[in-house]
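Structure first, sequence second, as always.
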């Protein structure tokens, strides 16, 4: 899993039928301190995340292992909304 910040949404009015009902988020990967690294990912949202939130996402075959994405052609899925990140004794992110 990787950390990312939700920076937007992606809307596709025409898509493959098995993708119907999925919400797509635009994510920017962040490091352990919350600083954006520049990489951008489109991910299906399995947890109801919103803009500005820090999330955990999985990519590759792991992205198809949630109830919402099972047997769907997705390459990334938001699996958790992060409440806090601590590195050593320092809290680097708190919601």
């Amino acid at each position: 899993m990787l950390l990312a910040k939700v920076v937007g949404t992606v809307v596709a009015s025409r898509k493959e039928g098995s993708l119907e009902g999925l919400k797509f988020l635009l994510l920017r990967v962040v490091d352990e301190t919350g600083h954006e690294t520049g990489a951008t990912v489109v991910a299906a949202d399995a947890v109801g995340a919103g803009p500005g939130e820090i999330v955990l996402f999985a990519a590759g075959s792991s992205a198809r292992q949630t109830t919402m994405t099972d047997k769907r052609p997705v390459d990334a899925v938001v699996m958790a909304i992060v409440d806090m990140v601590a590195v050593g004794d320092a809290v680097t992110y708190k919601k």
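Margin note: The chain has a mean pLDDT of 94.
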